[in-house]
Amino acid sequence: MAVLTKAEIAMLSTSERLTLIRDLWEGLENPQPDAAVEARHRRVLKKRLAEYDPAHETLLPLKEACDRLRKR
Questions:
Q1: CA-based angle 72:52:55, to the nearest 5?
Q2: d(CA 17, CA 23)
């Protein structure tokens, strides 16, 4: 992948910059899976998301949460 510097982008014509913007925008609309995330990590994340139930969340005041962490 070619990386353009800000100076190189500034030297592009308006038409070329608009084309670059369009290409970037289209890339965001159809993102490619991140190959850097290994399959085993995806499985763990998928499992944790499936197990997460916000109805069982208990929120603590910040001071109490900090106190509990300090006692560990």
A1: 95
A2: 10
Please report, for residues 16, 55, 67, the alpha-carbon distance to residue 70 in angstroms, rounded to integers and kept in the order given: 56, 27, 5
Q: How far apart are CA 20 and CA 14, in angstroms?
A: 10
What type of residue is 17? R
**Average pLDDT per block of 10 residues along the chain, 72 residues long:** 89 95 84 71 89 82 93 92
Could you tell me the end-to-end alpha-carbon distance of the chain, in angstroms, rounded to an integer? 47
Give the predicted TM-score (pTM) of the model.
0.41
Pick the closest to residue 58 from 50, 49, 48, 68 (CA basis): 68
